[in-house]
Amino acid sequence: MKRLQTRFPASIRCMLFVFGIFLTSVVWPLLSSAQEQPTLKATVPAIWYGELNLKIAVLRLEFHVTQGEDGKYTGKMISLDQGNIAVPLDSFAINDQTMSFAIRKVQIQFEGKLSANKKMASGTFKQLGKDYPFSLALVEPDPEMRHTQTWTGRMKAGAQKFDFQFRYFEKEGSDTKLKLDSFTENDFDRVATIAQDGTTITIAIPSTQAKIVGKLNDKSDQIDGKWLQRGGEFKIILRKIPLEQTRDPKANRPQTPNPSLRNPPKYKTTELTIENKLADLKLVGSLLVPDGKGPFPVVVLITGSGPQDRDETIFSHKPFYVIADHLAKRGVASFRFDERGVGESTGDFSTATSKDFANDVEAIVEHLKTIPKLNPQKIILMGHSEGGIIAPMIAANRDDIAGVVMLAGPGVPGFDIVMNQTRLISAAAGADATDLDYQEFFLKLVLEDKLAKDQLVQLVTTKYKNKLSDEEKQMLPVAIENMKSQFKSPWFKYFLNHDPRPDLRKIKIPVLNMVGSKDLQVDPNLNMPEIKRALAEAGNKHTTSVILPNLNHLFQECETGEPSEYAKIEQTFAPAALDVISNWLTKQFGAELTNQ
Predict the structure, then answer these.
(1) Do residues 110 and 93 make contact, with C-beta atoms less than 8 angstroms apart?
(2) Residue range 267-412+499-589, CATH number
């Protein structure tokens, strides 16, 4: 499985794509103490898992049990394959040798013998006069099993489309584990296996008797193959995505739209495929058009850095979907799309720069101008983070863009952004002044790329010889080499040197420039003044700049603004920020907006 594995240097984790702008973070190794293996007593509350083979189907069952102070157990059985139905246990008993439980409502009984280590129970599952062999295993967290990869795919089977992901777990000396999450079917954590023979990958899902057989590409980031199940054969493409874009099956994201037949949205969603002939690729995305005659203003949503899907998914949040839904309900159309090489779009993401992404957006603008229900004179570009660089880049050189919305858009070159955000985030995480100065010194040397690796090592170890341990000194050359190689990507070199201010000085159309006060990635104190100054130099009389209190880089209400909060916060996009956007659009293009 070497070709599918991703290894990160043990000494310094220096690059992390976190939604929108490039986040660098220098993290020195931490030594963790060994942990004892959990015992049965230490695992209460406990989860026991088993697969019940009914011949015609295999049901995955979980038993969540808790032992009270009186020694008695309470709990429930959850059927993962029946909509996560939870049924209370009437009784549950366990001792040194046996386990038993009963659910009178559905006439279920189980009696089994415990293994010597008390982590497995094997016996007979009885229901409605029928007996089935059944085994339960104690589910124990394994701190050494690391989630290292996520692969996503969409499959069309007849009229249905299935949206799913595979999460890939590794542990030194152990078999790889896979978990399948089917979001279309609301079916999560289904166990899968993976095998590789040369470039041929086989993924099997035992409980459904399905498998995927495909070819791994040369970059080890895409598998082209077929989904095989019960005689059916369906084309499938799996693409590797950044870990932070993994959707958490257990995450609560109340703002994510959930259209249903009972409560259909007051807009129409159409999937479009738009060709960028210059780059020889196709961009696939979702067009949301409000009910009514139109023509409607249309917003093109432009994602931030890193491979992003149309929803700008991060930690199960879908901010662009939330924004698009909000706008459609207020009479504004929108188009959001998978970036080149991501999701259903074709092309090569790895070789592209911000300028290439701008060319993709220009192809989209040309296509949207041909759609009857959209107003070709009211096309607005809305970019988040790096997208806040791309939107002005396009508007500065075209006369058919009506407005620009910058969501946490940079106002200074990428070099300054990286240096500033690294210090702010490390300081918020508790680094002291000495650590911050060292980190800044080290990072600046690597980014400037004026010294050879050996010279860098010598300079750093000499200046900070009393700070670095012997182990860190040994690891330093590997870390520097890794950082240098990653910083030499076409995208990063372009980003470091690109100054957004010359583009801003050319823009005279309406601009909304908004950022959160606790944004540690695009610091409002560094960027907002420069954006306002550049727009003023353009003679632009139609600008609105807003710093929203207590919002982070994702426009979530937050405590500190640290990226570590992004996944923990249930809110995807603050309602106050959504209102600023829609109210501004109403003010600027209000003749055609109608609240719904």
Answers:
(1) no
(2) 3.40.50.1820
